[in-house]
Each structure stands twice: as structure tokens, then as C-alpha cells.
Amino acid sequence: MVTVRVPAKVNVQLGVGGVRPDGYHDLANVFFAVALGDQVTATPGEGVTLSCDGPDAAAVPLDDGNLAARAARLLAAHHGLADPGVHLHIDKAIPVAGGMAGGSADGAAALLACDALWGLDTPLPVLLELAAELGSDVPFALLGGVALGRGRGELLEPLPVAGTFHWVFAVADGGLSTPAVFRECDRLREESGLGSSLADVPTPDADPALLAALAEGDPVALAAALANDLQAAAVSLRPSLADTLHAGTEAGALAALVSGSGPTCAFLAKDADAAAHVAAALRASGTCRTAHATHGPVPGARVVKTSA
Ligand code: C5P
């Protein structure tokens, strides 16, 4: 039996370029791994099977499309294992379809858990390549910490970061589809007359002020630099998110932004006490289903328990 712990992410900067011929968008994506995370336990089994526990377990698809199942099959195929046998149990704490890369996290965790269970010892660069095949956000879940993601988000460069930052995540009722949010971003750009193609939108780049705030461990400077080009699209599709963002800043958060493609909203707090206060105020506000205080950065997917 092998248990892997894996973090969720928030994008402290999500710069979205024009839509590429392959349908993806070039990004300047600064990923930040937070302690809110899932656990995936791999045990020997027949074929690839899944189960899931947690408050949102009913919303997790347990079919072959789940990234954890796809990860197990991809790793087996890469090593020429004809008949992979594994049962993957997901302890789910990351909001489902929430913009925190929870499905991607489970894919990364399954790669690592199966690698250990099957004794494959796959080198990290190969695991990162397999992860990129599974999805744009999966490599970062293996790496953790803070990293700049270029391309569609999969080309990662670890970034220097000092200290610990304190976050609150407000979980919405129901998810948002990532492709739908990117399409809405394109639609809003077309509607504004700017256009949405590669030729219309400048290639995004990491903001030097944001990188300096991370390197210095300065939450006030980071709060001022937080930016998400998908936020307007997420709020356009789910206008009630504006109330959630407002409730968190009213409660004293340094800044608020939509996490990735949403609908989870992220709030930066000045310390752990402020984060606990903001989380309590958000839970009482009626503008979200629940709210969690957490911190980061934390490492990427790692084995936390093995037994024979
Ligand atoms: O890579 P992944 O399968 O996670 O992406 C899900 C969807 O999000 C893509 O099919 C695409 O619609 C959108 N996407 C995008 N540009 C990116 C990453 C994702 O348009 N850089």
C-alpha cells in the first residue's frame, strides 16, 4: 500500500495570451501550492479501479476519465505493463471543478503512488512528461512550491520564495468548466473589440513586482500584484462571485481573486489569525458554501506512507 499527499494550487498570476491554433492559450502562470490537499492511496487490485471519500465525493467521476485512472494507465503503458492492477482511493479535500487543480492533483498523486507500488522508479523528468500528457496543471502538482508555468502551463520553472503566506479559499456551490471559462475570456475579448487570437493579445509575462514579493515573503506586496486574466470570465459566468470576493475583503483580507478558472475564490491574509478570521466571516456571510484557511507554499506530491 502506498499513500501520496498532493497539494492544491492557486494561481497568484494567471496571464492569458491569445488562443493558439491547437485551441490552448499561452500562459504566464505563477502556480502556488497550498497545504489544502488530497491523499491518494494505491493498493494492488484487478485492472484500474477507483473510490473516493470526502464531503464532495459524490461529485467526483469514478470512471476511466478520472485523471487518477488515466495516470495509472499511462504509467503502465509507458513501462509496457500489459495488465496494470491497482485500486486508487482518493481522500478528497480539494474543491471539485473549483479552479484549484484538484483533478490534476489526483493525477499527479496517482502517477507517484503507482510508480512506488509497482516498483518502477521512474525518473522525475519522465514523470513530468507523462504528467504534461495528462493535463496542463498536472506537472505542477508533482513539483509544488511556487513555479512559473509557460506554454499551456506545463513548462515549469521553480521560483524563489521566502516564508509562509496565509490564504483562505471560499468554496462555491457547484463547479465551473475550465474550457467554458477560457471560451468566455475569448468572447469578452472579442466583444470589447480587442480580439482573442495570438495576433491580437500580447504574449503574457510574469510580473517582476509579483516575483519580488514572493522572493521577499511580503504578503502586502503580493496582495497588490495578484492578477487573474480569467477572473472577469469566471464572474461573467457566475456573477455571485463578486459578492464572495467583496465579503472577504470586507472581512479584512489583503486581497481577493478568483482561483484559476474558479469558482473558488482565494483571499490573501496578513497572518494565520487574520486568515482564521476571514474564513469565519466568509462562512457566516452566506456568499459561499464553506471556507478554509490554509497556508503555503508546500512541496508537491510525495509519498507519506507505505506498507506491505
Ligand atoms: O490541459 P487541460 O486538459 O487541463 O485543459 C483543459 C481545457 O482548458 C483545455 O481543453 C482548454 O479548453 C483549456 N485550456 C486553455 N489553455 C491552457 C490550458 C487549458 O485553453 N493553457
Automatic annotation (TrEMBL):
Residues 66-145 form the GHMP kinase N-terminal domain. It comes from the Bacteria. GO terms for molecular function: 4-(cytidine 5'-diphospho)-2-C-methyl-D-erythritol kinase activity; ATP binding. One of its GO terms (biological process) is isopentenyl diphosphate biosynthetic process, methylerythritol 4-phosphate pathway. The active site is at 9, 137. Residues 210-286 form the GHMP kinase C-terminal domain. It catalyses: 4-CDP-2-C-methyl-D-erythritol + ATP = 4-CDP-2-C-methyl-D-erythritol 2-phosphate + ADP + H(+). Keywords: ATP-binding, Isoprene biosynthesis, Kinase, Nucleotide-binding, Transferase. ATP binds at residues 95-105. Its EC number is 2.7.1.148. InterPro entries: GHMP_kinase_C_dom, GHMP_kinase_C_sf, GHMP_kinase_N_dom, IspE, Ribosomal_Su5_D2-typ_SF, Ribsml_uS5_D2-typ_fold_subgr. Pathway: Isoprenoid biosynthesis; isopentenyl diphosphate biosynthesis via DXP pathway; isopentenyl diphosphate from 1-deoxy-D-xylulose 5-phosphate: step 3/6. It holds the Pfam family GHMP_kinases_C. Catalyzes the phosphorylation of the position 2 hydroxy group of 4-diphosphocytidyl-2C-methyl-D-erythritol. Belongs to the GHMP kinase family. IspE subfamily. This is 4-diphosphocytidyl-2-C-methyl-D-erythritol kinase. It comes from Kitasatospora phosalacinea. The gene is ispE.
